[in-house]
Amino acid sequence: xxxxxxxxxxxxTLATAGVSGLTxxxxxxxxxxxxxxxxxxxxxxxxxxVFMIQLFSxxxxxxxxxxxTGALLISILVGPLAGFLIMTISLFALALLFQHGGMLSLGAxxxxxxxxxxxxxxxxxxxxxxxxASLIVAGLLSGVVSASFCALELALSGMLDLSSAFxxxxxxxxxTGTIEGVASMFILxxxxxxxxxxxxxxx
Amino acid sequence: xxxxxxxxxxxxxxxxxxxxxxxxxxxxTGSRTALVGPNGAGKTSLLLAIAGLLxxxxxxxxxxxxxxxxxxxxxxxxxxxxxxxxxxxxxMPTVIEDVCFGLDTLGLDDKMALERGQAALxxxxxxxxxxxxxxxxxxxxxxxxxxxxxxARRSDITLFDEPSRELDPYGRRNFIDLFHKMTGTMIxxxxxxxxxLETCTQMILLDEGQIxxxxxxxxxxxxxxxxxxxxxxxxxxxxxHPHSH
Amino acid sequence: MNHAFIDRxxxxxxxxxxxxxxxxxxxxxxxxxxxxxxxxxLNPPQIWAGLLIYSAxxxxxxxSSSVPFSFLLSRSALVLPFSVLIVFVNYVSGNFSFAQMIxxxxxxxxxIFTLLLLTSTTPFHEILKQxxxxxxxxxxxxxxxxxxxxFFLLMGEIEALERAVHMRHSSVSGWKRIRVYTNMIGMxxxxxxxxxxxxxxxxxxxxxxxxxP
Lengths: 203, 245, 213
Description:
The complex is a heterotrimer of chains A (203), B (245) and C (213). Helices cover 74% and strands 2% of the residues of chain A. Chain A is mainly α. Chain A has a two-stranded antiparallel ribbon. In chain A, β1 (58-59) and β2 (65-66) form a beta hairpin. The radius of gyration of chain A is 16 Å and the shape is globular. With 245 residues, chain B is an alpha/beta fold. In chain B, the strands form two sheets. A six-stranded mixed beta sheet of chain B has the order 6-7-8-3-9-10, with helices on both faces. A four-stranded antiparallel beta sheet of chain B has the order 2-1-4-5, with helices on one face. In chain B, α7 links the parallel β7 and β8 (185-189). With 213 residues, chain C is mainly α. Chain C is built from nine helices and no strands. The model of chain C has no long low-confidence stretch (mean pLDDT 87). The chains are: A mainly alpha (203), B alpha/beta (245), C mainly alpha (213). Chains in contact: A-C, B-C. At the A-C interface, α1, α2, β1, α4 and α7 of A face α2, α5, α6, α8 and α9 of C.
């Protein structure tokens, strides 16, 4: 969920922007140190890819469609730091060009999707053995944590009665998170068949 | 004087399939050479190898200097490459930035680079397109911008990969006219055999990574048996009266 | 999806289009901070006055921009599903008064409207250039500009793939459908990698060794 402007109060806006901003500064510094020239266009094209999959909803039956955040997938492919950079850039562009999520609430959205998806999701993926299980658990847990952050930010801004909506949000995000994990798994399996050399550095 | 000399050039794809198998040839300064062959013959690989973009075995001499991983960057200052897909060549926000990209590495300052870029755009008759974005241009216009990027570099050697592909007849004619006005050594890989007859003074017939024959275009392209044995056919302009007496 | 709509009106010629990107970015930032941080600090009757004045200013700016109101309003309305959901949940659970419900919805609409005034009067690469002049790290700007450049191509590719899928797979649903879509996404990812490789070769041919102008 991309939180639009107008729903978070000043302290929450500033606090989330601070956390996301510091993470961004750190990632930029680290990526700048380790980047090889051929990765520069690659990160741009992957940012385009993430930007596109966040706009691209696909139907999952029963009249619902969902979209992926791409955070888990991209972190597995290029590492969590570059992955976070890509997530931040696409969330910024989504807010600016598609009004998908607000500009002042960008910090909160980066925190919920980028920080949680790239660092927590990737951490769980690396921590749990077995590719399939780890991807599903990473998807599920980062979905749930992401939803909790989102609910907490809204609640602290006086926008949400935690008791009434929290359970519903957790349920929805648990499901979409799991789908994210499963979809990432399918995509990685597809890559393994078509272009295995892309996964060499991650295997 | 030979500008480009290739000895025992081989290249193998990362999956182990050989793409080029021991090529030898020399190209004179100012020559115009077509690389012709069926799909998968190794045409694009050969262009990329000459540009120093592949890790190859064997020797490539450009202006008598051996091409190595170390000096590839400096030897590329004498070369331009017009790729097949304009979207992969034009990545800057505006047309002029694309045309001027990298001119600073040739030792030009901003003002000189801009002048060169504008001159190149007017050579391809795209004056006034400086501030446009590549993704708003038609396909034919994007191809012209790609040629302008090469023109602006004023290289000794220009490489073209499928320069007439997907162009309409007008765009193709336009390319041929431009090509005749360009100077320097030209190498073009193409399936467009009529284009070869109109633009090139010699050709190399490639198949399965090997040179089958090198010589005058009308002689090679007119050889029915040779053409058919390499999945090609004699261009129409050479078969004007195939069954008359 | 209409590819042009991102910066559909950004190349018009109007007094607002002629303003420097710096002025417009700063102006929009000040407006958003006033709307989202300052107006909520006021007392309820003043809040309404504030929102009214803010709306009036937006109308005046729009008039000087020659961007159609219908476009700005219909794009702003895209936020409504989310706003209405949150606002409605709060209203039903007794957390919000009717006035708060309206206030929050109006604020979220106005903030999008404000941002749209920037993006529909300033080409994206002009915004990037200005951000770069203000010291935004180069890597950030480069990735953004590549992203913007190749997004259109990717969108065209996904549409073509979607059409191909529809022609052959119109009736599958559930897990199978996810499989089909993930294969599509995987295909786009492979193409992105290959395209990145070719773009890098094209950059190398023009002397790129890692430093970006």
